[in-house]
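Just scan my protein:

. . .
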Amino acid sequence: MNTLKSELRKLEKNKHLAYIKFKEERSKLFEAGDWDALDRLQFEFKADEIEIDHQIAKLEDIIAGNIDDWAKVAIICETSGTLRELFREAGHETISCDILPADDLSPNDRHHWQGDAVEFLEGFEDGHFSLIIAHPPCQYLAVSGNAHHANSENRANAMQWTENLWNLCKRKAKRVAFENPVGVLGHTQMGKATQYIQPWQFGEPESKKTGLWLHNLPKLKPTCILPKPECGYWENQTPSGQNKLGPSPDRWKVRSKTYMNIGLAIRDQFSKIL
């Protein structure tokens, strides 16, 4: 909570400094008679002011406890909004959180919190959420990165951060689910994954073995098991079985997006016990 209050003070200070700078620039442009530039300056300042006011209001709501009225399911480390919107469609008050903005919402939408997941969760009383689902970043955790990250400091830090997040989520929610590809989390206090699932068990003709760590939740049941294609590999694979998605700046985002049919299974099966 002290961290959130410190962040609030910083935002308020930045707002004040921005206003001082705006007044100085406005005076210069007014004296120069540059009316077009003055209009642009005032428009940009107003847009920035609205955004910072929204961030301040969010922090004030969390600190005051007012946010308790609407957040009962939290989706951590999600930018796509897939699971958030599926749970909202089912009538659950749901918020997502990530250090990046949501792909599907405006910056001012209250159903996504852009910021640090730990700071976000610490703003709530223990046991506040009915369910937390988290997708911790897997860059340093997945075995696919062994060639670059085995025994590295980045991997050790990622393991510790994810373990700490797991313990925090179990304090803040009655039920917790963590999702991550095959990796090294089994060597943390989280232990081995409760189960591993594949997209093809849920009607998606692709392969991506993914572990689920579940706390007070039942194992996810397959909904539509597909037979392996006659060619011997799935749609997202090369003939050798490797993922065929080529290098790109958004590769991590494409790879990490929740499959819709898996998302539906998570929502439908976990909602029954909320």
Notes: The longest helix spans residues 2-32. The two ends are 27 Å apart (CA to CA).
